[in-house]
Design a protein that fits this description.
Layout lengths: L16 E2 L5 E2 L24 H87 L4 E2 L5 E6 L2 E9 L6 E9 L10 E6 L5 E6 L19 E10 L7 E6 L1
Antiparallel strand pairs: 1-2, 3-10, 4-5, 5-6, 6-9, 7-8, 7-10, 8-9
């Protein structure tokens, strides 16, 4: 008697399972391709995970960018702080200089005012001294070098003083002009005396015919005649001469 065999049962073991859709799924280890064109599942270990390495590199690059941004921000902040500090220091330094300049200007004006007052006081003292000397020495005048001083004292018209020599050898020379406007002859009797600032005599000179620039045969000055006398003043003291007196007889 022939056994009845269902072709669907051949080759199937107890491990064969039925899919939910009603198709038979091969057992484990069966390399037969799936029915109905379905791809065979890949068994075993998968390949290298390249996505993980790419993510790691991207994370490292991001961290480096963050560090660079932080460093740049720190440098900018430090530069701003340094700039602010420098500006503050410069402001106070400039203000200090301006204050000092203002103080110096005030001091300068005070000194100028004091100098002006001192000059006025010196002028007053000199005038007082001239008055005192004039009371004691009639005709006293300030001695000015290298300038013609008008006198018009009788027949003495003017006189000029110059300084010559060096150091201790310094001396004073004079040049004076005499004119006889009278109708008769005049025998010049002129004495020139020098004095220091305290009124003490420093030198003296007397005119004679040997001092005339143009040689004179007689000492008398004839009517209408003009003579120029020039000579050195004999100095008795080396103190600076400040005043002079021309005594005419």
């Amino acid at each position: 008697m022939n056994e009845f065999r269902n072709p669907d049962w051949q080759g199937r073991g107890p491990t064969d399972t039925m899919s939910r859709s009603g198709t038979m799924q091969p057992a484990a280890g069966d390399s037969q391709p799936l029915r109905d064109g379905m791809a065979q599942p890949v068994l075993g270990r998968s390949g290298p995970r390249t996505g993980s390495r790419g993510g790691h590199r991207s994370s490292s690059s991001s961290r480096r960018k963050v560090r660079r941004l932080r460093l740049l921000a720190f440098l900018l902040a430090a530069g701003m702080v340094a700039s602010i500090v420098f500006s503050v220091v410069l402001y106070f330094h400039t203000q200090n200089i301006r204050d000092k300049e203002r103080d110096l200007t005030v001091v300068q004006k005070q000194l100028e005012a004091e100098i002006a007052k001192a000059r006025e006081r010196i002028t007053e003292l000199n005038n007082d001294l001239v008055i005192l000397l004039a009371n004691r020495l009639p005709g006293v005048a300030e001695l000015v070098l290298d300038r013609q001083i008008e006198l018009n004292n009788q027949y003495v018209k003017n006189i000029t003083f110059v300084q010559s020599g060096v150091d201790d050898q310094r001396t004073i020379e004079f040049s004076t002009v005499l004119h006889n406007a009278r109708t008769g002859p005049i025998l010049p009797q002129v004495t020139i005396a020098l004095f220091d600032e305290t009124g003490l005599q420093t030198g003296i000179a007397r005119l004679d015919k040997s001092q005339t620039i143009t040689p004179a045969d007689i000492p008398e000055l004839q009517p209408g005649e003009t003579r120029t006398y020039s000579a050195q003043v004999r100095l008795d003291r080396q103190a600076p001469s400040k005043y002079f007196v021309v005594e005419v007889r």
